[in-house]
Structures are given as structure tokens and as C-alpha cells.
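ok so i was messing around last nite and threw this chain in just to see what happens. nothing serious, just curious
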Amino acid sequence: MISFLMTFYRMVRAVARGGKDPEFQVLLTLMVITLLSGTFFYAGVEGLRLLDAFYFSVITLSTVGYGDFTPQTDFGKLFTIIYIFTGIGLLVAFAGKIFHYIQLNKMELKEERKQKKPKI
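result:
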């Protein structure tokens, strides 16, 4: 549990730090728009409840794909194909940015410890 909390804390710090970067802000905005568009599309066209539509959008973009929901209409299937190709690329770019800031925080902490260490 402690390991999870430490990882979560690092991720929150990375996202907070990334919030100042314009490229990160654009990726975050695009991720939110992508998830919302998928959610509203699946709710409207496929008739899923909003929570189920959001859940389906997330598991589709994360490539988990449990199989409990699938598009039933031809239009839904075509949308899903486009949604997957555009959304996965966006998700990878966003996750890469978060990883970059996590690594940056680790490097800075290491440098701070190195500077505090007394020289012999």
C-alpha cells in the first residue's frame, strides 16, 4: 500500500509540474476532449448510460478491452476504429509527458541529495 501511495504521489507531483508546460496543457486538454467525445458518442449512439460510456471509452483507449461492452451499430464500430487510432496515440504522448516529469523530479531529488551530502 505504501508503494502505491508513493507512486501516486509522484504522479500527482508530475502532473502538477506539467501543468505549467504549454505542451502538457494541450495534451491534457486533448485527452479530456477525447474522453468526453467518446463518452457522449457512446451514450447517444449506442445507448449506454454515461458512466458505462465513460468506462467503455477509458478501457478502449487504454487497450484493456474487457469485452463487456461492444459497439452494436455500424456507425459505432466505425467511430470506434477512428477513436482507437487517434486516442491511443494521444494517450501514449500524454503518458510519455507524465513519465518525463516523474523522471525529472527523481533526477532533481537525486541532485539535491548529492549537494547536501558532505564532501570528504
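not much to say yet. Residues 22-106 form a domain with the Helix Hairpins fold (CATH 1.10.287.70).
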